[in-house]
Amino acid sequence: MTETSPLSIDGADHTAALERALEQKTALLHEVDHRVKNNLQLIASLLLLQTRRTADPGAREALRGMLERVNAVATVHRRLFQNEDVQRFDVSEFVRDLVGDMVGATGREDLRAHLDLEPVAVSAARAAPLALVLSEVVGNAVRHAFPDGQGGDIHVTVGRDDSQVRIEITDNGVGRAPGCADGFGSTVIQLLCRQLKATCLTEDAEPGVRVKVFLPLNGGG
Ligand SMILES: Nc1ncnc2c1ncn2[C@@H]1O[C@H](COP(=O)(O)OP(=O)(O)O)[C@@H](O)[C@H]1O
Ligand SMILES: [Mg+2]
User: Fold this and answer.
1) 3-class DSSP state for residue 164?
2) Is-contact 60 51, C-beta < 8 A?
3) Which ligand lies nearest to the CA atom of residue 182 in the structure?
4) Residue 111 is inside which H or E element, if any?
5) Measured over all CA atoms, what is the biggest interatomic distance in the chain, rounded to whole angstroms?
6) N or C: which terminus of the chain has fewer CB atoms within 10 Å of its end residue's CB?
7) What pLDDT, on the 0 to 100 scale, is given for residue 200?
8) Smallest CA separation from ligand 1 atom 10, residue
9) Is 212:149 a contact under the CB 8 Å cutoff?
10) Which CATH architecture has domain 87-221?
11) Is the pLDDT of residue 14 over 60?
């Protein structure tokens, strides 16, 4: 029985085989990308349907929060796959999408977003947890800082130094009411920051609230 050893394939055949393998891999990646996107869309649609059918305000609010989190993950996914390098996640591009979507979704013209963004890449593995933290913080500014009739500004800056990514979200709204209780959003932020080894600080911005997120760049960036 004769068998062709891979070593005996001549140069042209070898290149053709590699090109075929690469084409197959690329097609597979697109296929998976499509499926993930469709599945996230499906989950979001189900949550939206359930939200609309829920009369209880507390349950409705919880479902709306989950829909927002799924949307944040879908945005991460879209961003990663629009990128040439699927291993790296640009925090600033994500923030631009997130803030645009969240402020846009309010339909309010009295909320203004100001972005000061430096390109900062982190590993794809950290993309979803970081995105969820930012979605909670921006969501809080959008939802709690500006009651009806009171407009204002949301400033977001993204930058880095040698050791960490720095993200600041500041609103000039009503501020946190004295003694107001943490909700599920705060728990999500704490859990994910611990996972990311990140720090999240909330301070009074007089007026409004400033939240600073510091994400160390070591450990895979
Ligand atoms: N930017 C903000 N401006 C005013 N109040 C805020 C802001 N962020 C958070 N809060 C207050 O802190 C509370 C807890 O926030 P959070 O833990 O995210 O829970 P939730 O958003 O589900 O109420 C909010 O209910 C709100 O009263
Ligand atoms: Mg919240």
Assistant:
1) strand
2) yes
3) 1
4) strand 111-117
5) 84
6) N
7) 98
8) 176
9) no
10) 2-Layer Sandwich (3.30)
11) yes
Query: What are the pLDDT digits (tens) for 144-189?
Result: 999 988 999 999 999 999 899 999 999 999 999 999 999 999 999 9
Which residue's CA is minimally distant from atom 11 of ligand 1?
176
Q: At a CB cut-off of 8 Å and minimum separation 6, what does 173 contact?
A: 141, 144, 145, 146, 150, 152, 207, 208, 209
Of 102, 138, 144, 206, the one to substitute when testing ligand 1's pocket (max ligand atoms within 8 A of C-beta) is 144
Distance 196 CA to ligand 2 centre (A): 19
The residues spanned by each domain of the chain are 10-86, 87-221
Residue with CA nearest ligand 1 atom 14 = 182
In the structure, which protein residues have their CB atom closer than 6 angstroms to any atom of ligand 1? 136, 140-141, 144-145, 171, 173-177, 180, 182-186, 209
Supply the pTM of this predicted model.
0.91
Q: pLDDT by residue (tens digit) across 113-135?
A: 999 999 999 999 999 999 999 99
Averaged over 209-214, what is the pLDDT? 98
Going by CA atoms, what residue is nearest to atom 3 of ligand 1?
145
Cα dist. 104→100, 101, 110 in Å? 6, 5, 11
Task: Go through the chain and tell me how many residues it has.
Answer: 221
